[in-house]
Specification:
Layout lengths: L2 H9 L7 H18 L21 E6 L4 E7 L6 E5 L8 E12 L13 E8 L5 E9 L4 E2 L14 E3 L7 E7 L2 E9 L11 E7 L2 H5 L22 H6 L15 H7 L2 E11 L38 E3 L16 H4 L3 H10 L14 E8 L6 H10 L4 E3 L1
Parallel strand pairs: 1-4, 12-14, 12-15, 13-14
Antiparallel strand pairs: 2-11, 3-4, 4-10, 5-9, 5-11, 6-7, 6-8, 6-10
Bound molecules: calcium ion (CA) (4 copies).
One calcium ion (CA) binds next to loops.
């Protein structure tokens, strides 16, 4: 029995949820190897693609910033790999023939100022006459092998982006990369891999389009805000070492904020009413984006703007019928109110962006009217307040 045969059994689903049986098979193979070749230790298991220390991989060289570089290939002239896929895509199960490429990303090629931390790129596959698919793999520096979800060589490979359109449609992958060496694989769809025909394809690495069509703020924790800008590659090693599952990280699965910010990032004339549990309005990343009722003189005990609420400078606390709209607490302690849900919500809407600290809001500049409200008691009244005081967006 060989490891190849074992892989076939794994792909057939024989060991699904039956790890005891799997380990029996591994023990059997190991003992056979030992018996047949007593002078050699059992060979370590490796995916064929990564055997031979990447010797058959075509190197695309150093990829630089703000460039579009294309590489034309005739597959019949290239070393073919047989890659036993563990990728989760449904049409990549089994062995498929493929061609492997590497390229380098060097900080000096893109680090134009201290704000630039990653090189954003689209990797594209085009000019197809067969159904090729595109795969991207990141190497785990601890093992010099692909990242795997779990210990041991049989754990599935993770962080492999794929683009697997059917037919001869182009393929495209977005990645944001730190300095390092990366691997791309062009594989025939295993379902159609035996069909004869031309085998030409073009790989294009485009580090120009993303920067031209997007705008990124310089906030410290932007890289953690995957819902705005999901690079899919953030701190993969940290994620794994913290014990979290890394599968499911999907680059560009976000609200396309960088693309939107290129068109518009300020909403400074827009009043957004935040109906929630109150907001810590002194927060350094929020204070500049809190609505100020200009018709109200603070702290004089008079309803200067005659809107029915005395000293309502930043909003109103409907929960406790008072001017201080911070936490859901009759006498809010600013430290306690930091943790309130409304503060979190306000940060998503309008944390001051491009100020180097904290996070970036969806709107970089805006005016957030703070409404502390109990939805079961004074919902209508709170909405009337927001509308009468010219909020044009209300968060519920
Ligand atoms: Ca395809
Ligand atoms: Ca008033
Ligand atoms: Ca007043
Ligand atoms: Ca900020």
């Amino acid at each position: 029995m060989t490891f190849d045969f074992l892989m076939q059994l794994i792909n057939m689903g024989i060991f699904k949820n039956n790890f005891a049986l799997l380990f029996q098979f591994i023990s059997l193979i190991t003992s056979q190897n030992t018996a047949n070749t007593p002078s050699l230790p059992p060979a370590p298991f490796q995916l064929p693609f990564f055997q031979g220390k990447f010797g058959a991989i075509t190197d695309l060289g150093l990829i630089k910033n703000a460039t579009t570089t294309s590489f034309d290939f005739n597959a019949s002239n290239m070393p073919k790999q047989f890659y036993q896929s563990n990728l989760p895509e449904r049409n990549t199960i089994g062995k498929r023939s493929s061609y492997a490429f590497s390229f380098d990303v060097d900080y000096t090629s893109f680090l134009t100022d201290e704000k630039s931390e990653k090189l954003n790129m689209f990797i594209q596959l085009s000019g197809l006459s067969k159904d090729y698919d595109l795969y991207f793999t990141q190497i785990d520096p601890r093992t010099n092998e692909p990242f795997r979800n779990g210990a041991g060589p049989l754990s599935p490979i993770i962080n492999a982006r794929s683009s697997t359109n059917f037919g001869i449609e182009d393929e495209s992958i977005f990645v944001a990369l730190e300095a390092g060496k990366y691997y791309v694989e062009v594989g025939l769809n295993p379902l159609v891999g035996l069909i004869a025909g031309d085998s030409n394809f073009k790989i294009t690495i485009d580090t120009k389009s993303f920067n031209q069509s997007t705008k990124l703020p310089n906030d410290k924790y932007l890289a953690n805000q995957w819902y705005l800008y999901n690079t899919g590659t953030t701190n993969l090693l940290d994620t794994i070492e913290s014990g979290s599952k890394a599968n499911g990280i999907k680059p560009n699965a976000d609200i396309r904020a960088p693309e939107a910010w290129k068109l518009r990032n300020s909403a400074k004339d827009i009043i957004v009413a935040v109906h929630d549990s109150g907001v810590y309005i002194e927060h350094p990343d929020l204070k500049d984006n809190i609505w100020v009722n200009k018709g109200e003189i603070p702290g004089n005990g008079i309803d200067d703007d005659n809107n029915g609420y005395i000293d309502d400078v930043n909003g109103w606390n409907f929960t406790f019928d008072k001017k201080d709209p911070r936490a859901r607490n009759p006498n809010p302690d600013p430290k306690l109110s930091i943790s309130s849900h409304g503060t979190h919500v306000a940060g998503i809407i309008g944390a001051k962006a491009n100020n180097r600290i904290g996070i970036s809001g969806v709107a970089w500049d805006t005016q957030m009217m703070v409404i502390n409200v109990d939805p079961l008691r004074n919902w209508l009244e709170a909405h009337e307040y927001a509308i009468n005081n010219k909020a044009s967006v209300i968060n519920n």
